[in-house]
Amino acid sequence: MNRNILLVDADASFVGTLTAALKAEGFEVTAVPDGAGAVNVVRINKPDLIILDLFYPPETGPGAGIPWDGFLIVEWMRRIADLSGTRVIFTTAEDPAQYEDRASKAGASGLFQKGSDIGQLLSAVRGYLGEPAPAA
């Protein structure tokens, strides 16, 4: 059974790299660039795991004004869908240590710095989903 991962990040380069790595591990990936997209996805399909960035560029255009961040996105997703049992991993380009307490209070299973070893993130994903490590 393929596990479905929701990846929420506005950084197209990071999304492309992580999506390719996750798909190579056999995961299905749905990638969206913002909180509105994430909320729409969980309304339709409960992912097995959610990976999302902590910070997003300001929205523009009609109806803009919600200053989305990863914490707010998780809060909104939990309001509209039963995410019990769904693990959440935050990512950030900044030093993750400064967000550990807040991430823990938000119910995150992990917090990773972008640009660090992607293998650690993949290992965490496999562990959280109970998937075996790939054969060497």
List keywords for this structure.
single chain, 136 residues, alpha/beta, 5-stranded parallel β-sheet
Give a short overview.
By secondary structure, this protein is α/β, with parallel strands linked by helices. It has helices at 12-24, 35-44, 70-80, 100-105, 118-129, and strands at residues 4-8, 28-32, 49-53, 87-92, 110-113. It has five helices and five strands, in the order βαβαβαβαβα.
- CATH homologous superfamily heading: Response regulator
Low-confidence stretches are none
Fraction in helix = 25-40%
**What do the pLDDT scores average to?**
89
Largest sheet: 5 strands, parallel
What's the number of domains?
Answer: 1
The CATH topology is given as Rossmann fold
Give, in spatial order, the strands making up the sheet with the most strands.
Answer: 2-1-3-4-5
Rg over CA atoms, rounded to whole Å, is 14 Å
At the first level of CATH, the class is Alpha Beta
CATH architecture designation: 3-Layer(aba) Sandwich
Q: Beta-strand percentage?
A: 15-25%
The helix tally amounts to: 5
- Our measurement of the CA-to-CA distance between the termini, rounded to an integer number of angstroms, reads 21 Å
Structural class: alpha/beta
Please report the total strand number as a whole number. 5
Plain-language structure description:
- The protein is an alpha/beta fold and 136 residues long.
- It has helices spanning 12-24, 35-44, 70-80, 100-105, 118-129; strands at residues 4-8, 28-32, 49-53, 87-92, 110-113.
- It has a single domain, classed as Rossmann fold, CATH 3.40.50.
- The protein has a 5-stranded parallel β-sheet.
- Helix 2 packs parallel to helix 3 (70-80).
- The longest helix has 13 residues, at 12-24.
- It starts with a strand and ends in a 7-residue tail after the last helix.
- The mean pLDDT is 89.
